[in-house]
Amino acid sequence: MSVYSYSIVTQSFASSRVATSRSTKRIATSQEYGMHEDLKNKLMSRAIEVLTENFGAPSRETVKVIAWNARHDLGVVLQIDQPNREQGAFIWLPYPPDGQPIPEIALEYPGEAGRHSNTYPSPGLGRGFPALKLLLRTESELNDTVSFIKAFRDAMPLPEVKAYPAEPQSPVAVDVARMPPAKEQPQRREAIPRAVQREVWQRDGGRCVECGTKEKLCFDHIVPFSRGGSNTIRNLQLLCESCNSSKGNRI
Question: Which residue in 93, 134, 207, 239 has the fewest CB atoms around it within 10 Å?
Fold first, then answer.
C-alpha cells in the first residue's frame, strides 16, 4: 500500500471513531433526559423542559443540579436534589442590579453566605457574589421566571414575579357595598444595594440572628415589603433558610 493510500485509510478510520464518539454522546444525553422525565416531581421535569427550550442545551449536569448559560455572565441553575416533595423547584440566579425588582418567591443570599456548592461554577454565581434562590411551586411561577431571566439576559427592565396559589381558588361572593376602602398598594420589592448588604452582614456577624448558624444565610426584611418595609439597614437582618421560612410574612 502506498503512503498516500495509507494516509487516506488512517484519516477515514479516525473520522469514523469521531463520528461514533459523537453518536455515543448524543445517545447518552438522550438517556440522561429520559431519567429526568421519570422524576416524580412534575414541576421539576417541566422546568428542565422549559429552560432547555428557551436557553439551549445544559452547560453542566451533575447529580445535584442542571445548569444553563443564558448569557456569558448569566448562569441559571436548577437544583434537582431538592425539594424532596413531589411538587416544587429551586432555581438559582445571579443577583440583579440595584433598583431592579426582586421576585416575590426569591430568597436573597449575601455574597459571603455559603449556599448550594454546585451553583458556584456557573457564570455570575461564583463565590463572593450575591444570588437569588427562587422557590417555585406552580407552572405560572415557572413561566414568569423564564420571562424574568430573558429580560435579565437582554438587559431590559425586569418584570415582577408574583407568588401564585398552589391550588385553584374558588370564586367567593362579595358585597361590594360593605367592602372597606382599598389600601394603598405596597411598593415593589427591589434589589438590596451592595453597600447595604455588606453593612448588614458585618453588623450581624455573618450569623442567623435567631439561631446563630452560619449556614444558608439570606436577607430578611423585618417589616416585609408587602407591609410597607424597605431596604434600609435597620429593616434588614440575616436569617437562615429555616428561620426565614418560620417567620414568613410576620413582623
Answer: 207
Give the phi and the psi of residue 85 in degrees, each rounded to 5.
-70, 170
- On whether residue 248 sits in a domain, the answer given is yes
Q: What is the pLDDT of residues 46-71, one digit of tens each?
A: 999 999 999 999 999 999 999 999 99
Of 221, 237, 241, residue with least CA distance to 229: 221
Q: Are residues 113 and 62 in the same domain?
A: yes
Overall number of domains in the chain? 2
For cell 401564585, the residue is 164
Return d(Cα 26, Cα 100) in angstroms, integer. Answer: 40
Residues 46 and 85 in one domain: yes
Its domain, for residue 76, covers: 42-161
Sheet with strand 60-61: strands edge to edge:
60-61, 65-71, 74-79, 89-94, 131-136, 106-109, 217-221, 236-240
Secondary structure tally for the chain: helices H, strands E: 5, 8
> Model-level pTM?
0.76
Residue 132: inside a domain, yes or no?
Answer: yes
127 and 78, same domain (yes or no): yes
| Residues 90 and 136: beta-carbon distance below 8 Å | yes
In a domain, residue 2? The reply is: no
Q: 109 - beta bridge partners?
A: 131
Alpha helices in the chain (DSSP H): 3-37, 42-55, 139-153, 194-204, 241-247
Residues contacting residue 59 through CB under 8 Å, at least 6 positions apart = 67, 68, 69, 75, 122
Beta bridge partners of 107: 133
